[in-house]
Structure formats: structure tokens, C-alpha cells
Design brief:
This protein is mostly helical. The chain contains 17 helices and no strands. The chain is globular, with a radius of gyration of 21 Å.
Amino acid sequence: METNEFLEKPVRQLFFRYLIPSIFATMVTSIYVLADTIIIGKGLGATAMAALNIALPIYNIFFGLGLLFGVGGSVLLSICRGKGDTEKANAYFSASLLLTLGFFFFSLLLCVAFMEEIAWILGATEETISYIMDYIPYIIWGMGAFFFSSFLQTFIRNDGAPKLAMNGVIAGGVANIILDYVFVFPMNMGMKGAAIATVIGSCLTVVILLTHFFTAKNQLHFTLKGIHPSFLKDITINGFASFLIEISSGLTIFIFNLQLLTYIGNTGVTVYGIICNTAIVVMCLCKGINQAAQPILSTNHGAGFYDRIHQIRSLSVKASLIVCGIFVILGLFVPDLFTNIFLTPSEEILHYSSTAIRIYFIGFLMMGVNMVFICYFQAITQAGYSLIICLLRGCILVIAFVYLLPLLFDSIGIWLAFPAAELVTMFLGIYFIEKSKQI
């Protein structure tokens, strides 16, 4: 898509053109985790599923680092294109690619050297350590696929090829599901098989995304000309909110697991595995909405078309509330549906999960709005606001509440922590919107 189309076509038409491919792409990304969880839960049992939930934060880190430089660079690329500066746009793409390569090699060396230590830090127990060590070595060795899957998706979408980004992720997701089943059941490879399937699926996604650079539509060109040291700061600042969203998901899982082990035990971690995997789906749908909006927001911000920016923000909020509302209604009225998707549950698990799901899922409504606020401020380069919202909802408030509320409400307080953190953050986000005077 030419830059002028971002600036001239009707906003609603543009948004929905990008919305469906973006939602499909991010939705299928969640399948990488969901397929592992469902097949491990059904095939290997509750302890193996608890082990997978303990290992998940390391996946968030790898995917998040790709987003850090992918979103950070692609926002700046779109703004430069909105101003008509193609040369600087390509310089930002090139600098982002070099940063991604550098962090990939550093992360690989670090994680390979301390694999087992990482497992214990993540919260492994004597019951789960063997399962975890069957899983994370393959995820670590395959981390490059996660880095470049998230990195390439953002740039290719900003380069006007949302359908290719969608097709790449769908192909990888389908391959992951098929291989998950084959490796875990007929081939009896256990946790190792699920991990290998995830890596192969992500590799296929990367290969398909790379074909964009050999098409006539490609406007992304690598160059060392025009790259400035200040680009490191610019890219990192603008991408940090996306990185923090991904990392905070892993941090939330880590902190919740520790508290649940204290108050309930491995059963609590298993129940949270059901919840957080559903939350991954909801989060991915919200990301899809925001990824549809981001190129339009950034390009129009570069051109100074603020009425169009406000229309996109409004459409994003409405779409997020509709999507999140569906999950809230299902969680309130048929909570056991989600439990049975992931496990053949015992009575004990059903006892804990129905209450936990009803409480936790209410937070999805506020989460959807907060995600729009983060995307909006990020896309118009007001990174300070997006960073504050990210830190509050994903780190500061959720950690504070997950430790404080159980003192008042016992284990129920753990499930209340998420909706409480999202609600407080949403009110602050509304204040930031008013303060920015771009209503």
C-alpha cells in the first residue's frame, strides 16, 4: 500500500482492511502456546501442564525482544514515510534489524549457558523440573524463530502487506498444531515434541515472511547510509511499551505462580495455566486490533491529520470492548467450558477454576481499553504515557495487588489482582487522554 492511501482512504475502510488480517495473525500466534497447552494437558496431565505454565515466561521474553525493535522501528518508519522521508525510513528499518540480530546472539549465548538455572528461577519444583528441562532447551535453541517472527510481522504489516503477515503466521500455526499432535501422541515425544513443533512452526512463519523482500510491493531496503547512534534510543523508547506488554505477561505468570504455589500448590498453578492461556488469546486479539490501527495512526500523525487519528482510536476501543466482552460473558456463565478445553479436570480443579475464571475474566474489559491507550500513545510517539500504562498494569499494580489482596481475601485475592490492576490503570489512561488534549 502506498503511503498516500493511509492518508486519503476513508478511516473505517482502512481500519477494517487491516483488522481482519491482523487479528488472524495475532490469533494464530497464540496457537503456538495453546496447542502445546491443550495437547500437553490432555496427553501428559496436570503436572506437565503446570510445568509448561512455569516455562512460558521465557517464550514471552524472546517474542518481546523481537517486538521491541520491530514495533519501535516500524512506528518511526511509518512516521518518516508520512513526512515523505523514505531514506530515513529505511535507515530506521536497517538499524532495527541490526539491533535484533545483536540481541538475538547475546540472548542465545546467555540462555544456553544457564538453562537449568533459568528453570529454577522461573519457579520449577521437584515435581515439574524434569518436564521443564524436556521443554526449554529446544525453545532456547530455537529462539531466533521467535525473535524474527515478531520483528518481521510488524515491518511487513507497516509496509502494506497485512495479508502476507497473516498467511505466514497461519501457516506456522497450522504446522505447529499438526506436529504437536504427531510428536506428542503417535511418536510419544512428550514435552520435547511439543517444543520442537513450536520451533518448526515459527521457522515456517519466518520463511514465509521473508518472501516479502522478493516481491514488487516491498519498500523495505537495508542500508547503512543515514544510520545514527541516536536511532538506538529512538527505537528502544518507541518499542519499549510493546516489549513491556510481552514481558509483563511473563512476569505476571511468574508472580502468580509463586503466590499460587504458596496458597494452593500445583493445583493452583494448573488452574492458572487454564486462565493465562485463555488470556493469551484475548491479549492476541487486542494486539490484532492495535496492530491494525498502528500504521494508520503513525502515518497520519506524521502528516498531522489528527481528526483521522481520533477516529481510529475510537474504532479501536469499540472493537476491543466487543471482543473482550464475549470472553467475559462466557467466563461468567460457562466457566467450566475453558477448563474442559485444556484438561480432563478433577473435581478439585473444577472447584478452584470456576470461581477463579469468573473473577479474573472481568479484567479483560479494562485490559482491552488499556491496550488501545498503549498503542495510541506509542503510535503518536508519546512513549512516556504508554510506558507508564504498561508499567502500572503489567508490573507495579498487579504485583502489589497479588501480594496485598490475599492478605485480605486469601487465595481469592490472587484472582482479584488482575482486574483490580487493569481498572486502576484504565482510569489513569483516560486521564492521560484528556491531558494530551487530542480527543
